Amino acid sequence: MDKNNLTKEYSNGEVTIVWQNHLCKHAGVCVKMLPKVYHPQSKPWINVANATTNELIEQVKLCPSGALSFYMNNGK
User: In the chain, where are the structural domains located?
Assistant: First the structure.
């Protein structure tokens, strides 16, 4: 496993957040917007249960590097 090229998924049942570590520029937008969701020192570092689906989507859309993306679990 290449630790420099990881992709992890975190789901709340409605939406799945996808994180690609090799794209992350550590701008901190995620942590600043949703500090109850993103905890860089914790494992797992993303806890999607601490925000609504809409809050998660809106935050992911603002990720400047594209390291965070999402897809809807119902296919929409």
Answer: 7-72
